[in-house]
Amino acid sequence: PLPAGWLPALQFVRRGSKAVTRHWKAMHFQRQKLMAVTEYLAPRPAVPPCCVTPRKERVEEDNGYTRLLRRQVEEVFRDNRMVAICQYNSMPDEDVVMMRHYLRKHNIEVKFVLNEIVRSVLSQSKYKNLLPLFVARNILLVSPEPKAKEMLRVLKGVPQINLLGACIDNTILSRQGVENFAKLPSLEVSQGQTVGALALLPSQTSSLLQRGPAHLAALLDEHIRRLQAEGTGSP
User: Fold this and answer.
1) Cellular component GO terms, alphabetically (predicted)?
2) Cα separation, 38 vs 41, whole angstroms
């Protein structure tokens, strides 16, 4: 027999994987239905949160450059009697310089503007009906005097610039309206025609009123002359 407390010099220890006794198994479809039916759903609030808490709208402040452009557009519509809106198509720089030169001879300036700036200004003014014209790349032809005839004469030789409409003396006109306005005589001629038409009726009335006394005076003079010729009466 072995003495007490003696251990063998060599021991066999089992080192290996554990026996897997459980594998993953899909849930039965009936239990899946039961879990889906019994799933907890939080009650909806009586009033939607968007109606309780007002939305905070972000107000974007215009920078200094944007305010400057808005002020320039306001001055254009305030200080000029004629503002024509044209569609601008791509053209050589030399043609642009020549067009501006010919227009400047008639005191008409060309203004390149941004549609978003012009639309923001017109939406708060009395020229709201001009908003549909600012949909593409536009330019403004402005003049302190209504030079519609001279403007059409210059634009006739520039097919890249299409006239869309104009505001003349606070009156919005279409392209056809501008052409009809250009056919009208000048202000001095119109005033002369108006004065002549107004003076015609009083002159006719005055001549009608003076015709009777003048005819009577002529008859009396003729009667006196005959009396003097016969020597039977005194003047």
Assistant:
1) mitochondrial inner membrane; mitochondrial large ribosomal subunit
2) 9
> Is 133 a domain residue?
yes
Long-range contacts of 204-210 (CB under 8 A, 24+ apart): none
Q: How confident is the model at residue 232 (pLDDT cuts 50, 70, 90)?
A: low
Is 235 part of a structural domain of the chain?
no
Tell me the pTM. 0.57
163-197 pLDDT per residue, tens: 999 999 889 999 999 999 888 877 777 778 788 88
Residue 171, classed as helix, strand or coil, is strand
Query: pLDDT tens digits, residue range 71-101?
Result: 999 999 999 999 999 999 988 889 999 999 9
Residue (of 31, 9, 162, 199) closest to 84 by Cα position: 162
Q: Residue 136 and residue 132: Cα distance in Å, rounded?
A: 10
SS3 content of the chain, % helix, strand, coil (to 5): 50, 10, 40
Q: Residue 80 falls within a domain, yes or no?
A: yes
CATH of residue 128's domain is 3.30.70.1730
